[in-house]
Automatic annotation (TrEMBL):
InterPro entries, alphabetized: DsrC-like_C (IPR042072), DsrC-like_dom_sf (IPR025526), DsrC-like_N (IPR043163), DsrC/TusE (IPR007453)
Keyword Chaperone belongs to the record: no
One function term, GO molecular function aspect: transferase activity
Designated name of the protein: Sulfurtransferase
Record EC number: 2.8.1.-
Originating species: Solemya pervernicosa gill symbiont
Similarity comment: Belongs to the dsrC/tusE family.
Primary location group: cytoplasm
The keyword Signal is assigned to this record: no
Function: Part of a sulfur-relay system.
Pfam families in the cross-refs: DsrC
First-tier enzyme category under EC: transferase
Length: 113
């Protein structure tokens, strides 16, 4: 599988995760999101950027949904944030689907789609 972005072919595995994290940019994210049927909101970009930051700057960490909820309760200063709030932005799973759009490797955690 691959994505065509700005005349460039971005290689991806059979599940749609890009093979090289360095190939990622916002245009690539938009192409993956379109393939996933997701429109990226401002908070969606927050989630994507958080996942990229955790992976690139925290030893390859790929937070699960529970940790994402905890982070965004503080980041968005909203104690009502829950997993459902994150699923509104990424209906197939905020950790896995957003991770795919963020250009991080496919997680080996159980669950998801």
């Amino acid at each position: 599988m691959s994505y065509e972005v700005n005349g460039q072919t971005i290689a991806a595995n059979a599940n749609g995760y890009i093979e090289n994290v360095e190939d990622w940019n916002e245009d690539v994210a938009k192409a993956i999101a379109a393939a996933e049927g997701v429109e990226i909101s401002a908070r969606g970009w927050d989630i994507i950027n958080y996942l990229r930051d955790e992976f690139l700057n925290n030893g390859g960490n790929q937070p699960n949904e529970r940790n994402m909820v905890k982070h965004f309760k503080g980041a968005w200063d909203d104690s009502s944030i829950n997993a459902k709030s994150l699923y509104e932005h990424f209906p197939k799973g905020p950790a896995k689907q957003a991770g795919k759009i963020a250009g991080t490797p496919e997680t080996k955690r159980k669950g998801g789609y």
